[in-house]
Specification:
The chain is mainly α and 127 residues long. It contains 4 helices and 4 strands. The longest helix has 13 residues, at 92-104. Residues 1-63 are annotated as: Disordered.
Length: 127
């Protein structure tokens, strides 16, 4: 750092000309480089992104830590067998792949589109 011991000199102001900041010499220490501001971190957006990805996140309102999403165990209830829902036709590996591909989208709108693409609609049996 170089210290200049010069006094302030004004050029052109006595003649009525416009003076520019370059025309002034100021005593003091010269700055080395430009200091940049730190980028602000938007924690609300970061937590929402974690939630959409199925990761552990902290709720912005209640400040509670919510656990990461995981694949629930396959249902073995009698209701599924009576209604012939065929839950057992999808293996645990397939369920894990579907779970990961759904949460890999990372955006609520894309996750909704994922559901629309993979749901088959059928007509009601009753009229």
């Amino acid at each position: 750092m170089a210290v200049s011991n010069t006094k302030q000199v004004i050029r052109g102001s006595d003649k009525g000309e416009k003076s520019f900041p370059e025309d002034y010499t100021v005593e003091g220490v010269e700055k080395e480089g430009v200091q940049r501001k730190k980028a602000r971190v938007n924690t609300r957006k970061e937590e929402k992104k974690k939630k959409d990805l199925g990761q552990e996140y902290t709720s912005t309102k209640t400040k509670k830590t919510m656990p990461a999403k995981c694949v629930k165990p396959m249902c073995k209830g009698t209701a599924c067998t009576k209604q012939q829902k065929l839950c057992e036709s999808i293996s645990d590996e397939q369920r894990q792949v579907i779970f990961e591909s759904f949460h890999a989208e990372g955006d609520l709108q894309l996750q909704r589109e994922f559901l629309v693409r993979h749901i088959k609609s059928c007509e009601k049996k009753r009229s």
